[in-house]
Amino acid sequence: MKIIFIIVAIIILLSLWGFYFAIRPFRIISSITPKNFGIPYEQVSFRTKDNIVLRGWFIPSKKPHAKTIILLHGYPADKGDILSSQLFLQDTYNLFLFDFRYFGESEGHYSTIGKYEVFDLLAAIQYLQSRKIDKVGVWGFSLGGAVALMTAPFAPEIKAIIAKSSYARLDWMAYSYYPIPLLRYVLGTLMRLWGGIFFQFDIKNISPALAAEKLTIPILLIYSKQDRVVPIHHGLLLQQALQHNPHFKMMIMEQGQHGQFIQDEEKIVREFFNRYL
User: CATH number of the domain that 149 lies in?
Assistant: First the structure.
């Protein structure tokens, strides 16, 4: 009986440790800014509905009267992590990047990995409205793609989305968080329990797939069969959720790890936004 108690205690402590580092991963503040590329930009800040100050960059396009694209970083990175790969859009579009709560230069004591980050994107859209920008496209990587999909039903300002390697259900990510085959479902279920206890929400309901069922705006999903962080079954669930959307497209690459730049990606992204934004 004592051995069983010790084993159970170890499992609970391991799950708590995993939960803590999931919501408070090592914080990254990238040294890369638009200044490194010699382009003009504004450092901006704005406040969410739950009173967290977020910080970002507004990069004006070289083209006058340009439309605007919001670029959303992944987990656990920051806005600087995606800057260089998406900067090619600046010759046609204004670019707006910001750090999600807790990450980068933004305030916040923890990440909710999607739940309250929806507030962050809504606050960013509200900030852009203060600049007389009421139509935007959104490009999001990983967590950023998930947040874009979950925010869009509440934000008619979002006219088109590219989601690269977005998760479809956060509880699936919890089960794959622990690299222990025999225990990952137990530990993932405990992580779901801690979310309910500490945050009062069920991570099973943090689902871009559920949100996607409501969307009819143009959406492009990009996945790789070799992605081990967000496996292809997330993309297939989103594909099913979006099957009735006439403006939905999906690209599944045979090769490429999580976040890897795919062949012709610049051309694909540019053509999508040029067509739909």
Answer: 3.40.50.1820
